[in-house]
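Below is a filled-in request sheet from our internal design queue. Each sheet records the structural input a requester submitted and the sequence that came back. We keep these sheets so that new team members can see what a complete request looks like end to end.

REQUESTER: design group, bay 2
PRIORITY: normal
MODE: inverse folding
CHAIN LENGTH: 157
BACKBONE (tokenized):
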């Protein structure tokens, strides 16, 4: 597996990957629509195919991870991509990384907590706001769990 940085040359392939995973390039996060089509990040390549992607943005005092996807789970792709983001933030002197996940995503909660992230804030019913911006967000999420709340996790570096 090879990890590469997103650049303009591969942007179209990255955008297609994002649309395939998230229905569109717009990511709705507590009522804000964020354009993943301009987000920086890294992608994982295997046999010339994109098998994973992490995107982020830099805010005042932190890096916010916007998306993390692995197409071939349990083979180290998610960890390798997350490690790229963490080391970039560390070497750039960014003190904190945050991300949002939803109440149904128990495997993401497990994944991030095992890698140093802690729950920091609960945004009750925030998915209702996000759904107004992005109606494709289903009412029921993973394993049929009602998709309602956003949970912010953070890690201090
Ligand atoms: C969360 C997510 C990114 C994890 O990606 P992943 O590629 O499965 O992650 P990894 O393979 O690095 O780690 C997953 C587990 O597999 C294990 N693993 C890694 N390589 C392995 C191998 N060769 N053999 C067996 N297990 C392995 C890891 O140790 C890890 O287990 P642990 O958490 O108990 O330590 C992935 O499940 C995903 O894409 N989910 C859908 C999108 C999503 O919810 N994103 C997060 C919200 S932003």
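RETURNED SEQUENCE:
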């Amino acid at each position: 597996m090879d990890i590469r940085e997103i650049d303009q040359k591969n942007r179209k392939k990255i955008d297609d990957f994002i649309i395939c995973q998230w229905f569109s390039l717009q990511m709705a996060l507590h009522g804000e629509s964020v354009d993943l089509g301009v987000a920086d990040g890294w992608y994982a390549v295997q046999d010339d195919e994109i098998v994973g992607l992490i995107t982020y943005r830099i805010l005042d005092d932190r890096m916010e991870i916007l998306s993390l996807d692995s197409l071939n789970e349990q083979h180290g792709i998610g960890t390798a991509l997350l490690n790229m983001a963490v080391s970039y933030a560390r070497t750039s002197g960014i003190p904190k990384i945050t991300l949002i996940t939803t109440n149904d995503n128990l495997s993401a909660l497990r994944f991030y907590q095992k890698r140093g992230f802690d729950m920091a804030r609960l945004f009750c019913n925030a998915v209702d706001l996000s759904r107004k911006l992005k109606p494709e967000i289903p009412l029921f999420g993973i394993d049929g769990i009602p998709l309602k709340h956003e949970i912010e996790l953070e890690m201090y570096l």
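SHEET NOTES:
- The pocket of coenzyme A is lined by residues 67-70, 73-79, 99, 101, 105, 107-108, 111, 114 (CB under 6 Å).
- Residues 77-91 form the longest helix (15 residues).
FILED BY: M.R.
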